[in-house]
From TrEMBL:
This is Uncharacterized protein. Residues 285-315, 330-361 are annotated as: Disordered. Residues 330-354 have a biased composition (Basic and acidic residues). Residues 288-299 have a biased composition (Acidic residues).
């Protein structure tokens, strides 16, 4: 795409709620009404984007990940997980703050995707949106969270058994219990397909169910799936950022929105998922499968209390726990900052209302 001069990202806006359309505000050109501007200032002005990532396709061949290659091809996700582009974090936040998805009551697969930007409203249907994103718009209407009734009962238990995961009550499952290939699939899920801003090293229920569906060759309507996750980013933003920033670049290009002069960011070396990424997981990929096969007879011969975790496993657990603690502390700090800002805005708004009521009396 056409590259523009990189500019500094805007600082958070002043703590104020506008009661009328601003005439000289720096964001005035982006929003048509004061309601749209207020929605952005209250919910998105302080939020950060989830940095996008993409897969180096050579990883699948060099590591002989045949099952993962088959899964991505069958699900029509091969090109999607490789996509990368420059993105516009400020514009994406503004678009998210005005995002509305209107579903057809009779046929939920048919919906209209709507957002506002530069005082204009844009809308696109499901099929056309799928073409823009190069995704399928056919298959199960799965949202990544609630299993479908047609799949039967005890889906979560079946998924845990499929991946040989032993989930203890009130304990989180770490990704190092998965095989190398399935761990890469989980990595793609939490960073690319259903990105989140924390908890990458844990297997959530929605992760294991989605992986079960993909491995079981259940066709999923990925356009519907991703739109559902986009809707999540518009709710409860005090605990997360917003993802799919490169997909928004595709939409901006599709609607020929002029983004010249806007602050943009490009992909960085850490954005690529390759062998170096996998080594950061603590995996010696060239020898991993041989080690697992060599350990199987020994594990069968050992009995309960005599089994001890290896030093490598202990180091992986310590590293994962340390990363999770850092993520949690950062999340708490970010939440407190956003809560303080929101309380200040609400207090200003109440003061304005009280003053208006006094003037009317």
């Amino acid at each position: 795409m056409h590259r523009v001069k990189k500019t500094a990202r805007r600082e958070p806006m002043e703590d104020i709620i506008y009661e009328e359309p601003p005439q000289d505000h720096p964001l005035e050109k982006y929003f048509k009404t004061f309601d749209d501007l207020n929605a952005y200032l209250i919910t998105f002005a302080d939020c950060k984007e989830i940095p996008p990532r993409y897969l180096d396709i050579s990883l699948l061949n060099t590591q002989n990940f045949h099952s993962l290659t088959r899964i991505l091809n069958d699900q029509g996700l091969m090109e999607f997980v490789q996509f990368r582009d420059d993105y516009f974090p400020d514009l994406v936040g503004m678009a998210y703050s005005t995002l509305r998805v209107v579903f057809n009551d009779e046929n939920e697969v048919e919906f209209m995707f709507k957002f506002k930007l530069f005082k204009k409203e844009y809308e696109i249907g499901c099929s056309e949106l799928a073409n823009v994103w190069n995704l399928t718009s056919r298959g199960c209407l799965f949202d990544g969270k609630k299993p479908l009734e047609a799949w039967g009962s005890n889906i979560k238990q079946k998924a845990l058994e499929m991946f040989n995961v032993n989930r203890q009550p009130r304990k989180k499952v770490l990704v190092n219990v998965l095989t190398t290939e399935m761990r890469v699939l989980h990595y793609l899920l939490v960073y690319v397909i259903m990105p989140r801003s924390y908890g990458y090293g844990h297997i959530k229920d929605e992760d294991i169910i989605t992986m079960w569906a993909m491995v079981s060759e259940i066709k999923i309507n990925w356009t519907y799936f991703i739109v559902q996750h986009m809707i999540r980013f518009t709710k409860g933003l005090s605990t997360s950022g917003f993802g799919y920033v490169c997909l928004w670049t595709k939409l901006f290009n599709h609607f020929k929105i002029d983004v010249s002069g806007e602050a943009w960011r490009g992909m960085v070396p850490t954005s690529v998922i390759n062998t170096r990424t996998l080594h950061h997981m603590g995996r010696n990929l060239g020898e991993q499968e041989q080690e697992e096969q060599a350990q199987e007879p020994q594990e069968e011969a050992q009995v309960g209390p005599s089994e001890q975790p290896s030093m490598r496993d202990l180091m992986q657990m310590i590293q994962s726990l340390g990363q999770n603690m850092d993520d949690r502390f950062q999340r708490i700090e970010d939440n407190q900052t956003r809560i303080d800002r929101r309380l200040q805005r609400m207090e200003r708004h109440m003061n304005i209302q009280e003053k208006e009521d006094e003037d009317q009396e």
